[in-house]
Structure formats: C-alpha cells, structure tokens
Amino acid sequence: MQVIITRFPHNALIGGGEFHTLTLVKKLSLKGFDFLLLSSDNVLLSEFKKRSYPAHKVWAQLEPVSVKGLLLFPFLAPISFVYLSFLLLKYRQKGPRALFCLSYTEKVLITPMARLLGFRVFWMEHLRIEKSYQQNPLKIFYNWFSKYATVVTVSRDVASSLEDMGVARKNLKVIYNGIDAEKFKPVAKDKVEDPNIVIGTASRLVKEKALDDLIKAFSRALKERSDLRLQIAGDGPEKEALKQLIAKLGLQEKVKLLGFQQELVPFLARLDIFALVSRAKESVGLAAAEAQAMELPVVATNISGLAEVVENQHTGLVVPIGDIEAISRALLKLAADKNLRSKLGQSGRQRVLQNFSENRMISDFEALLTSSHD
For residues 248 and 18, what is the distance between their CA atoms, to the nearest angstrom? Predict the structure, then answer.
C-alpha cells in the first residue's frame, strides 16, 4: 500500500511525534508499505532525506493553532485548498490510497476532498488536547470532518479529550506509542563503582514537568538518606531557574543537570529509580515506559496519560500532583527496599512488553492501514 504523509506545522521541531513518524515509516516499509512525505517542515524533511525516504517540500499556510495562523486562515485557506487538492489528484494517479495527516491544516482543509478522490484518511494526534484545539474557532470543521477519518491517538486520555470536544467515539482509535524493548532492556548495575542510590528523570525543562517539585522532594529525602543522588536529563527554558533552586538548597554536589541526552539508554542504565512528577497532563508517559522497559521502578504523579503507563504498587508508586512530601516518601520507600525496586521493575517491563512494545504498535498500524473498514 502507498501512503502519503502530510505535515504543515506551526513550528518545525524534532520531538516524540516526529520520531514516531520515522519509526512507522522505517518498520512499515519493511512490510511492503511505500511512503511519501509532503511537508513544509524543514526538520522532518531533513530527517526523511537523511534516511533516503521519499519526501517533497510543498507550501501550505501557517497551521491555524495560533492567533497569527487563525487570522491568516480565511485569506489563505482557498489557495491552500486548491493547491493541496491538486497535489492529491496528482499523486493519486501514481497509486497512493491512504492519507496520513499530522497537522491541523490539512485535517480541516482537504479531508473531504481526499475522501472524494478515494483516499482512506487517518489523522494522527500525538499531543494532549489543549485550548489550541478546544477553543479553536475552526473546531466545528475539525469535529465535522473527523467523520471522514480515523483519528489515531497515543492514549485513552487523548481520545477521551477529543470525544469530549465532539469527535465521535467510533472514529477514534488508540494505538500506544511503542518502545523498542530490545534497545531498552535491563542491564546489571555495578554498585561497587557507584554505591549511591541514583534517582533520575528525563524530560524537557519546563514548568509543566514540575522538576522543582522533584528537586524539593529529593532535598527532603536527602535529610534521611545521604546516599541519594539525582540526575536530570533534558534541556529547556527552566534550566536557569532550576540551577538557582539547586544552589539555594545547597544541592550542587547531589543534583546534576546533564542537558539533552542523545541516547537515553546509557543514562537510564545508571539509575536505580525513575521519577516523572508532572503537574500537567501527559499525552502518554513515554519516558516512564522506557524506564519500565529497563526494569526501573517509577515514581509518578496521578495525571491522565501517565496513569495509563504506571500502575500503583505494581510497576511503580503513584503520588498526588504537587505533593512534595508524598514524592519524598515514595523515593525513600524505594531507596530502602531493593527487593521492592526489583519487583516493580520486573512488572514494569512485562507491562511494556504487553502494551507498549514497538512490535505491537507496528502490528496495530499495519492492521489499521490494511483493514477493509473505513
């Protein structure tokens, strides 16, 4: 089957959604699928070309998820509609029969036309649903045109948010992001080399991730156990504020901000405990799933999306959002009990293999794309 992927984003960034797309193309190509990317996203286009995947740069208007994008939409939408419809007609003659839409622009502009031209249409929603969708004046078109597409989400929480917004349940399909279980697998730790209990997290350094809560909770726990260490992988706008907090609490020798880590496996291999204590909804707690795949117990907040990954007392410990004392107690409980860490870690890997493996994700997408149901 031949599949056209479209993406015309508000911002051209490389992140989880883009890597998800690259993984799908890589794995499904081995199963006989042919992909073509049509996009204005220079970052994703570059990644496709690095891998020799077919891709063409095409123009489309700014994604209507910002004030500027919405103001320009009425003026540019007719041009975008004609241009994108022409491209669909052009490439349809070469064989593609499925359209995989990654951004709001093409979802609200060309879904009906794609259906008229004989395409099966799939919308991909990687992120949690926020006001750029919920309060978007084009929401009526999004909801109406979703009837002509299968809307794929990465968690039940994202699907539920879309249903609350007006998308019919029958048009929603949940396929969890997949973890490469062969890449993320447990490794033996050399506690002679590092006798400390190492707690870690990997995330963007933004307020929503509540890294300040984690640092404060760690500071409390450190008063009871001097052998604790905290390592934070990631970069972002809160870096300086976190540095100041670490200095204020006198934790410069105990807490390390490591910056962005190109490869997470070596970082995770050094840890004894993984923590993800976000204060805002996660679309899905992929970082927690990667940690679980490496048999790390996880301390997580009870927020939607993340709660679908971490099971309290089974694969980790779940704590209330913003409860620094509860986070501290959970860290201390795991630090004190090696057997509990091992038990939760092993259960976590089994959960990943059953629900969040890359093989399962690819199989689910293959079944979706080849199914006769539309």
Answer: 37
What is the SS3 assignment for 240? helix
Q: Residue 191 domain-assigned?
A: no
Could you tell me the pLDDT band of residue 128, with boundaries at 50, 70 and 90? confident
For residue range 196-217, list pLDDT tens digits in order.
999 999 988 989 899 999 999 9
Amino acid present at 122: F
Alpha-carbon distance of 371 to 122, in angstroms, equals 12
Report helix angle 338-355 to 286-293, nearest 10.
110
| 59 shares its domain with 150 | yes
Residue with tokens 């907040």: 301
Q: Which of 71-80, 279-288, 301-310 has the lowest mean pLDDT?
A: 279-288
> What percentage of the chain reaches a pLDDT higher than 70?
95
- 201 near 214, Cβ under 8 Å? yes
pLDDT, averaged across the chain: 91
Q: To which H or E segment does residue 311 belong?
A: none
Q: How far is CA 66 from CA 10, 40, 143, in A?
A: 8, 17, 18
Strand partners, 150: 122
At position 219, the amino acid (one-letter code) is S
Pull the structure tokens for residue 231: 């390592």
Residue 187 within a domain: no
- How many C-beta atoms lie closer than 10 Å to residue 83's C-beta? 17
The answer to whether position 143 is within a domain reads yes
Residue 177, SS3 per DSSP: coil
Report the candidate in 190, 252, 255, 247 with the shortest Cα–Cα distance to residue 229.
255
103, 202: one domain: no
Q: Indicate whether 217 and 116 sit together in one domain.
A: no
Tell me how far apart the alpha carbons of residues 37 and 56 are, in angstroms, rounded to a whole number: 6
Compute how many other C-beta atoms are within 10 angstroms of the C-beta atom of residue 88. Answer: 23
Residue 323 DSSP one-character state: -
Query: Which residues neighbour 326 within 8 Å (Cβ) at sequence distance 6 or greater?
Result: 319, 320
Residue 318, SS3 per DSSP: strand
Task: Verify that 159 and 20 share a domain, yes or no.
Answer: yes
